């Protein structure tokens, strides 16, 4: 990615004021209400430094959780939770070309790293399941929980096909990534994308990101990485089951399950009609059976 | 292995502690309190707290001195705030 044009305007290290539209300097995009914004996470660039996790916790004032060692590689965060809105997966590949092999080609790694986050789905199942309207779509086309409205019913938790939303045991409310809604309103790039040292996490307008991602996939194919593909971009795996597309989408080099992502996520709302039909059919069947049994008596 | 459980039952609920300081950062129901020694502590509002998240930003804007009644949080580096009330600066 080229250096944004305005980046040369602010060479000083110390600032005595907020830079207006700072995202133009850091991400090359001006943040304006009414447009769609999201993340493109290129997992081939992730080095597992966890700067995104730290930046997220710092900005959002989230406490460190899961104290201790998980025993799962270098991953001590474990999973996305009410207090961890970014999570870097560390996947040690066993088998062919993995780190557990006795022999390995030079300059090849069996490690897969991916910074996971809320996908801010186009048709967000959590938003559809929320009975209070606490989950809403912002003017930046992202999905946010309003803490003062959330009643902690937890319907959004099973509705999310990615297991992102979590209820806090302490305040009893649902929590997840806000795509730094407060920063977007102030013209700032989200904290995780700004902190990412390799630009594995890229923030921008969705159409630009999707175009950039397609080019990156083509580039990787040319370089010989034929297994690179997009997850969550329109028409790709992840953008299934009426979810539309994902505003936070990924470039992967292995099956989605390897990254703990569902291969074909769906909207929970799609299952309401079949479930209702099945329930009504079962009730009708039971009523018929009862009628047949009772009418056979003298 | 029944001893820890027995000890917990005998000791009863976790004792409430108190801390005073200035609210320096607020995000939703989470806030940072800087105590008189300049050390910052992270608090999360309990679901039983008689304070709503909306009441925290004014405390930060006014750099208000507050007294927080809290308990430690399990498996977290932070505390659970059960009450937040304004307090006066102690006389020098």
Helix and strand arrangement:
The complex is a heterodimer of chains A (298) and B (92).
Chain A: H1 23-26, E1 37-42, H2 51-60, E2 87-92, E3 111-116, H3 125-129, E4 135-137, E5 143-145, H4 156-159, E6 166-167, E7 174-175, H5 181-185, H6 191-195, E8 201-205, H7 206-222, E9 229-231, E10 248-252, H8 272-295
Parallel strand pairs in A: 1-10
Antiparallel strand pairs in A: 1-8, 2-3, 4-5, 6-7, 9-10
Chain B: H1 2-11, E1 17-27, E2 30-35, E3 40-45, H2 56-61, E4 65-72, E5 79-86
Parallel strand pairs in B: 3-5
Antiparallel strand pairs in B: 1-2, 1-4, 2-3, 4-5
Number of helices of chain B: 2
Give the distance, in angstroms, between the N- and C-terminal Cα atoms of chain A.
Answer: 85 Å
- Number of distinct helices of chain A: 8
CATH third-tier fold name of chain A: Alpha-Beta Plaits
Overall shape of chain B: it is globular
Shape of chain A: globular
Main sheet characteristics of chain A: 4 strands, mixed
């Amino acid at each position: 990615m080229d250096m944004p044009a305005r980046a040369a305007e602010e060479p000083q290290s110390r600032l005595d004021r907020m830079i207006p539209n700072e995202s133009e300097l850091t991400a090359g995009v001006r943040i304006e209400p009414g447009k769609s914004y999201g993340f493109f996470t290129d997992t081939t660039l992730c080095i597992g430094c966890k700067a995104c996790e730290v930046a997220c916790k710092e900005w959002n004032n989230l406490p460190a959780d899961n104290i201790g060692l998980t025993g799962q590689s270098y991953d001590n965060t474990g999973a996305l939770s009410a207090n961890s809105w970014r999570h870097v997966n560390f996947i040690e590949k066993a088998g062919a070309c993995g780190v557990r092999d006795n022999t390995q080609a030079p300059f090849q790694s069996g490690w897969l790293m991916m910074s996971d986050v809320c996908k801010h789905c186009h048709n967000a199942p959590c938003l559809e399941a929320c009975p209070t309207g606490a989950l809403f779509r912002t003017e930046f086309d992202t999905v946010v929980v309003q803490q003062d409205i959330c009643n902690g019913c937890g319907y959004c938790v099973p509705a999310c096909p990615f297991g992102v939303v979590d209820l806090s045991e302490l305040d009893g409310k649902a929590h997840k990534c806000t795509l730094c809604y407060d920063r977007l309103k102030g013209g700032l790039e989200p904290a995780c994308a700004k902190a990412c040292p390799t630009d594995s996490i890229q923030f921008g307008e969705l159409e630009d990101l999707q175009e950039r991602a397609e080019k990156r996939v083509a580039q990787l194919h040319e370089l010989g990485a034929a297994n690179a593909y997009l997850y969550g971009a329109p028409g790709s795996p992840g953008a299934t089951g009426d979810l539309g597309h994902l505003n936070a989408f990924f470039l992967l080099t292995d099956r989605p399950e390897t990254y703990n992502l569902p291969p074909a996520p769906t909207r929970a709302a799609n299952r309401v009609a079949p479930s209702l039909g099945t329930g009504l059919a079962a009730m009708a069947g039971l009523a018929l059976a009862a009628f047949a049994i009772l009418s056979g008596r003298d | 292995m029944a001893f820890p459980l027995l000890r917990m039952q005998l000791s009863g609920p976790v004792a409430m502690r108190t801390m005073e300081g200035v609210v320096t950062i607020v995000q939703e129901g989470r806030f940072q309190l800087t105590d008189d020694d300049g050390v910052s502590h992270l608090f999360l509002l309990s679901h039983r707290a008689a304070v709503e998240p909306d009441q925290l930003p004014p405390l930060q804007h006014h750099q208000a001195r507050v007294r927080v009644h809290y308990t430690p949080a399990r498996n977290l580096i932070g505390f659970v705030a059960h009450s937040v009330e304004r307090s006066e600066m102690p006389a020098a």
